[in-house]
Amino acid sequence: MLQEAFSIGSHDCGDCPIRHRAVCARCEADELELLEEIKYYRSFEAGQTVIWSGDKMDFVGSVVSGIATLTQTMEDGRTQMVGLLLPSDFVGRPGRQGSAYDVVATTDLVMCCFRKKPFEQMMETTPHIAQRLLQMTLDELDAAREWMLVLGRKTAREKIASLLAIIARRDATLHLRGTDGPLVFDLPLTREAMADYLGLTLETVSRQVSALKRDGVIELQGKRHVTIPDFGRLLEEAGDDSDGGMLA
Amino acid sequence: MLQEAFSIGSHDCGDCPIRHRAVCARCEADELELLEEIKYYRSFEAGQTVIWSGDKMDFVGSVVSGIATLTQTMEDGRTQMVGLLLPSDFVGRPGRQGSAYDVVATTDLVMCCFRKKPFEQMMETTPHIAQRLLQMTLDELDAAREWMLVLGRKTAREKIASLLAIIARRDATLHLRGTDGPLVFDLPLTREAMADYLGLTLETVSRQVSALKRDGVIELQGKRHVTIPDFGRLLEEAGDDSDGGMLA
DNA sequence: CAGAAGCCTTGACCCAGATCAATCTCATGA
DNA sequence: TCATGAGATTGATCTGGGTCAAGGCTTCTG
What is the least distance, in Å, from the CA of B130 to any CA of chain A? Predict the structure, then answer.
């Protein structure tokens, strides 16, 4: 648990099959020592706002445990979720002033933070870190662009299926499982949060979830426990034979 | 013109008021010398595909002149534009294998390219470059996320206004003008391309452009020459008092 | 100059998803 | 135990934007 916090982001070290793990002793040893000195922890309760849009943001950091959402809001209240932060995800922009989004804790949340100034200085003396952050940011950019396709061109049913596929895949890789057998996981989002993610209303989300359940694409125990009997089928429903990279 | 090619991306050097310029002698002198040795040029005609989704991508580079689009396509043909590449924009992902999108030249296009391997080696020995790329990628990520709000939550009219605002602003800053007086520029996109950008059909784009014209928000000479008499009014129509950062 | 090919515009109609509203479920706690 | 309230579901109805279709405007080409 403590170990996780040493990571500055999702994992991707070449031949290592593990991605999205919060820690990998082999390739992060150097970062670990460097970051040790300037790090500290912050905890948030479910529902708490971690960062307000427009905040100064004097730190960067990564999620240790829990889930947070990244949202943008218009003056009239319309909101769009633009990212989901899961354990090992990085928050903040070295070299930039403020935040453009609200970051809200969806569950209880622990973050490992680094004061921004020292972190930036460290980036200059440790090229490895800048490159690592670049890789992570490129991944996020790919994910955001993939999501643009979902938002712009998919139907409500496809949107729901896409979101479920992404969460299911991420959950599976996080637990070092493949996507062959049935997948079981807990939905970390309310219907309303899903709607904000998908550019829909919560009623439409509810209807489409019910429809997917009725059609046997998913099974529900309660409102949050989801079973995907056939992941390939879900991908078809998502209109997506390729990868659902969001959160990747 | 040749000078522009030395740049590896949009400009942002602190107190310098110039952004989005392709070159800035002051702060890029070091990059210039380093990159000189491994760069070469490629030209494309309007309509040509620069990179196919899935290509190996053995180079990275930046746009010198002309415009290209970044698009994703579903198997059934639905397409979503996920980015617009204007002069000084960077293309490619150091450290990554292939491209996830199609890159298509919208106008005649000149790119300044660097073979990927040497470029990556150079990144390791020249931390400045990785950091610069990180800044650019963070900007792109912000832009992509801002666009997610447009795609997910805005009406057709607001979408059109948002796109026009973004192009107008980028055009103004590129020519070192403010956004106070009337803005005049050429639309670099067909109605169909706009539709692909906005997640709409070309008919809806046409209707809403006509409506904005009828309501005096924009003026049109021909189909492509646009005049924005009041930029603030346009931003209101976009549902957006803050910045339209896409392409920023 | 005529014809053709690309774009663009406009109209008529339709439907997926929004909106409005009622009800249900279930966890919490007095 | 029951009241409370936050989420979720479901139904009825409406509407913004999609779909289909018919021209219109330019720019090439022969």
Answer: 6
HSE (CB half, 13 Å, CA atoms) of B233?
14
A111: phi then psi, degrees, rounded to nearest 5: -120, 145
**At CA B102, angle to CA B99 and CA B106, rounded to 5?**
135
Closest CA to B114 of B28, B22, B36: B36
Taking each helix axis from N to C end, the angle separating B191-198 and B202-214, rounded to the nearest 10 degrees, works out to 100
Residue A17 φ then ψ, to 5°:
-75, -10
* 8 Å CB contact of A153 and B80: yes
How many whole angstroms separate alpha carbon B54 and alpha carbon B98?
6
Q: How far apart are CA A53 and CA A71, in angstroms?
A: 9
Which stretch of A18-32, A147-161, B170-184, B226-240 has the lowest confidence by average pLDDT?
A: A18-32
* Nucleic strand C under 7 Å from the C-beta of A91: no
Strands B79-85 and A59-65 turn out to be: unpaired
Structural domains in chain B plus CATH codes: 3-143 (2.60.120.10), 154-237 (1.10.10.10)
Q: Which residues of A touch B (CB under 8 A)?
A: 70, 72, 74-76, 78-80, 82-83, 93-96, 100-101, 123-124, 127, 130-131, 133-135, 137-138, 140-142, 144-149, 151-154, 198-199, 239-241, 245
**Lookup result for tokens 């910045």:** B243
Count of Cβ atoms closer than 10 Å to residue A105 Cβ? 22
Structural Rg of chain A based on CA atoms:
18
* A239 secondary structure, DSSP code: T
ipTM passes above 0.90: no
> Mean pLDDT in each 10-residue stretch from start to end of chain A (248 residues)?
36 37 40 60 90 90 89 94 88 86 92 87 80 88 96 98 94 82 92 97 98 96 92 95 47
The bridge status of strand B39-44 relative to strand B68-73 is: unpaired
pLDDT of residue B119 exceeding 70? yes
**What's the rounded Cα separation, in Å, for the pair B20 and A248?**
30
**H or E stretch at B225:** strand B225-228
